[in-house]
Specification:
It is built from 14 helices and no strands. It is mainly alpha-helical and 308 residues long.
Length: 308
């Protein structure tokens, strides 16, 4: 693996590790705030955190935003506003394990969208098998976390919303990758998070109302952490998507690490959660899928070099 590929892999792992810690933060924050207002505040602050660096790297920040306003508004609507509206609505309709399984299958949907929208990122049989192996691991990990939920009532609307999130994520990832040269990654991440977060907060007022009650320190700790991880992880991810030679479907295979890291964090921080047989098996399958994917890419790279 070359230096650039190793660097991109490490950055992808860092992003996924950060995202995997978000579940606990969201759970804590929602005890003291309504879903859409909490999400809106989180992403607006995340965008503000990225702004100083984005402006320093790109002094023509506002000029870039004006020239690419349609693309930024589209990305803010898809990636922040619509995706998180659907997520917080859908997760209340279905068991947590089912939601985790559906969101965990995101790399498959992203690969599917990339197959049709990115000419150089076609899905082949080996990649499909690797993705299915990873999804199977996610199923086992998620099922072990809440074994009773698999037999509960599943709302069709909730499932459709979660599948819609996966398609939205695939489309927005491909959208950024296709427009690599148009807008710097830090500009699109900061501006889209601020716009999307503000829109979420404004729209939440007539739906959820607004409360001025005092909140405990734990709420602000969770909000701060979620804002920081969003600022870092999303900025890294958009940067990776805009790098030449990076395939959207290959990059998103690393997202299978999110349930893996999420389980490890839970075992470390929550005494009631312990490793079980199905969870360990699922983790092994996820890890195996990533190893096979890396080997297939190395083999393909070797063949290309030999032909050259």
């Amino acid at each position: 693996m070359g230096q650039s590929k190793l660097k991109s892999a490490l950055l992808a792992i860092i992003s996924c590790l950060l995202w995997s810690t978000a579940f606990a933060g969201v759970k804590i924050g929602l005890e003291y705030a309504t879903p859409l207002q909490f999400a809106g505040t989180r992403f607006f602050i995340a965008g503000l955190l990225v702004f100083p660096l984005a402006y320093r790297v790109n002094p023509g920040y506002f000029s870039i935003v004006r020239k690419n306003l349609k693309l930024i508004l589209l990305f803010a609507f898809l990636q922040t506003f619509l995706q998180y509206t659907m997520f917080y609505t859908g997760i209340n309709m279905i068991p947590a394990a089912v939601a985790a399984i559906l969101i965990g299958s995101q790399p498959f949907f992203i690969a599917l969208v990339a197959h049709y929208m990115m000419p150089g990122d076609r899905m082949n049989l080996s990649r499909l098998l690797v993705i299915l192996l990873g999804i199977s691991g996610v199923v086992l990990v998620s099922f072990e976390k809440d074994p009773q939920s698999a037999t509960g009532h599943i709302a069709v609307a909730g499932i459709l919303l979660m599948l819609g999130i996966n398609l939205l994520s695939g489309f927005s990832n491909v959208l950024v990758a296709r427009e690599r040269a148009m807008i710097p990654p830090l500009v699109i991440s900061s501006s889209s998070m601020m716009i999307g977060g503000l829109a979420l907060f404004i729209c939440s007022i007539p739906i959820e109302g607004i409360s001025f009650e005092a909140r405990p320190p734990v709420y602000f700790i969770s909000l701060s952490w979620l804002s920081i991880l969003s600022a870092i992880a999303i900025s890294i991810w958009i940067t990776l998507l805009k790098m030449p030679g990076i395939k959207v479907s290959d990059l998103n295979l690393w997202k299978f690490l999110i349930p893996l890291f999420g389980a490890l964090v839970s075992w470390l921080l929550i005494p009631a959660e312990q490793a079980q047989a199905l969870t360990i098996t699922g983790m092994f399958m996820i890890s195996l899928a990533l190893v096979i994917s890396a080997l297939l890419k190395r083999k393909k790279h070797t063949i290309i070099q030999e032909k050259a």
